[in-house]
Amino acid sequence: MSKIGIFYGSASGVTQSVAMKIRKRLGQDICDLYNMEEDFDDVDDMLKYDFLLFGCSTWGAGEVQSDWRDPLFEMSVDKPDFSGKTIALFGAGDCVDHGEHFVSALGTLYDDFTKYGATLVGAIPTDGYTYKNSFAERDGTLVGLAFDEVNESGKTQGRLDTWIEVIRAHFPSAEGEAQTEAA
Ligand SMILES: Cc1cc2nc3c(=O)[nH]c(=O)nc-3n(C[C@H](O)[C@H](O)[C@H](O)COP(=O)(O)O)c2cc1C
């Protein structure tokens, strides 16, 4: 069975926690987890997989979490080929104090990886979200799973459940493993 590579950058552990839940839900055995800070060497780590999940919180004013900066720069030079690869995105943000740039890092990842040929799945309706502006909003959807543990922690589990069902249709899944277990 094809494996899924989950690559995430997380400064205070919020996106990391969701990355671990996603892995549990899709199947521990078929998901390899990479912390961009500790486990990522170069883009070849990603190109081993046909199915990829990228997690990134937003910092600064709409910028990617710092562990993503160098990898994205290196990719802009190397222009890797992600054609034929299916990707989905997730990341933490703050829709109140940073509502002008809510989860905007996901928009940056979307632009970069689709530019390199990847196919995105797992965009979600903006219904239920409140923010002023987001670079991750495209055509009335957010390009990935957005969650806000600062202001809306009670919504994260439901948002994750809904999103997992959306991406499950496009990603390999370990039958029977933790399918119904609360994350
Ligand atoms: C200095 C600072 C800047 C931030 N900038 C943004 C931002 O531009 N957009 C956003 O949605 N959230 C922003 N946030 C909120 C973080 O994304 C949020 O705290 C998130 O939970 C961090 O997730 P992590 O632990 O996975 O890195 C910012 C937080 C801080 C402290």
UniProtKB/TrEMBL annotation:
It comes from the Bacteria. InterPro entries: Flavodoxin, Flavodoxin/NO_synth, Flavodoxin_CS, Flavodoxin_lc, Flavoprotein-like_sf. PROSITE patterns: FLAVODOXIN (PS00201), FLAVODOXIN_LIKE (PS50902). Keywords: Electron transport, Flavoprotein, FMN, Transport. The keyword Hydrolase does not apply. GO terms for molecular function: electron transfer activity; FMN binding. This is Flavodoxin. Residues 4-168 form the Flavodoxin-like domain. It comes from Thiorhodococcus drewsii AZ1. NCBIfam families: flav_long, PRK09267.1-5. The keyword Heme does not apply. The lineage of its organism: Bacteria, Pseudomonadati, Pseudomonadota, Gammaproteobacteria, Chromatiales. SUPFAM superfamilies: Flavoproteins (SSF52218). Pfam families: Flavodoxin_1. Its cofactor is FMN.
